[in-house]
Write a structure and sequence with these properties.
The chain has 13 helices and twelve strands. By secondary structure, the chain is of the alpha/beta class.
Length: 317
């Protein structure tokens, strides 16, 4: 009999195909588990697969008295109550670094699209304004990448790849993170100091209580009227209301966003602004990344059911 795995978050069936080959899947399709399955079925669940950002607290864990493993599909695990999991001896796994290259790529894409005003330029061509030689203030020359100061907030796997890509574009790179790293980039002791120095702030820090709204009105003001912010982390890291105000009042020049405070809903105030580039949380959404994330999740689930430690366990220290 195949081991049973509860699919706690909503995933496309194509993404679950490899898991279905190995396990018997109880798929909630993103609905509350107790509305889809009986308490008897939930009582037998020993492992579940979830999206890292999906809330999974003590109340949800109560539904699964035999739960021994929570496996996050992807790098993030901010939705999981790690303290409760540890207290209940529930192992938590994820896919560290599996999508780092893809997320770094989307960060660069958003930065270039925002700073070079690609969306505005696209519309300038499509509308016929270019052919008609119609002047547009949005088409004024913008600063390029050589010599531009890029600040990376968070120097984990994704932050390092972003920094390397920026350096290849002949930009200056600085960073702030919880600790100093052995990397060839200028270290800043505070986020405030980094924001004062850079003209583009790349948000690549892990989401959590300590980073909630870390990028606030003060940080945005420090970026200045020529500054940009790019967020590929989690929407919670930026104070979204402060961001809307900074963009509306032209305190900063623009933004590139792949994540939002309440996904999948981006505030109308953001969607109406021509100097904001928006993507639907697709940073890690490449074929290669999904294979790598599935590899990690499958390895974690297999190890759990075989009584071994998770090879990709969440490190809380």
């Amino acid at each position: 009999m195949a081991d049973k795995v509860l699919i706690y978050s909503r995933f496309p069936k194509t993404m679950m195909a490899r898991f279905a080959e190995r396990f018997e899947l109880l798929d909630t399709a993103g609905k509350p588990a107790q509305e889809v399955f009986s308490s008897d079925k939930l009582g037998d669940v020993r492992a579940l697969l979830t999206g890292g950002g999906t809330p999974l607290g003590a109340g949800a864990m109560d539904l699964f008295p035999k739960l021994g493993a929570i496996v996050c599909y992807g790098t993030g695990y901010d939705g999981v109550d790690l303290k409760t999991a540890a207290a209940r001896n529930i192992a938590v796994g994820h896919s560290p670094g599996a999508n780092a290259a893809s997320v770094a790529d989307i960060a660069m894409t958003l930065m270039l699209a925002a700073t070079r005003r690609i969306l505005v330029a696209d519309q300038y061509v499509r509308s016929g304004d270019w052919a008609a030689s119609k002047p547009s203030p949005m088409m004024r020359p913008q600063a390029g990448m050589p010599g531009r100061r890029i600040g990376v907030f968070g120097m984990g796997e994704i932050g390092r790849k972003i920094a390397a890509r920026c350096a290849a574009f002949e930009s200056e790179v600085g960073y702030f993170s919880r600790s100093r790293h052995d990397v060839p980039y200028q270290y800043f002791p505070t986020l405030e100091a980094l924001a004062d120095w850079c003209s583009v702030l790349m948000v690549a820090v892990r989401a959590g209580a300590e980073t909630h709204h870390a990028v606030n009105a003060d940080i945005l003001k420090r970026l200045g009227e020529d500054g940009y912010v790019v967020n590929i982390s989690r929407g919670s890291v930026i104070d979204e209301k402060a961001l809307v105000a900074a963009l509306t009042d032209k305190l900063i020049a623009g933004a590139g966003l792949d994540v939002y405070a309440k996904e999948p809903h981006a505030p109308g105030a953001l969607t109406a602004l021509p100097n904001v580039v928006l993507a639907p949380h697709i940073g890690g959404h490449t074929l290669e990344s999904h294979v790598a994330m599935q590899d990690c999740a499958l390895a974690n689930l297999t190890a759990f059911f075989e009584g071994r430690p998770l090879p990709y366990a969440v490190k809380t220290a």
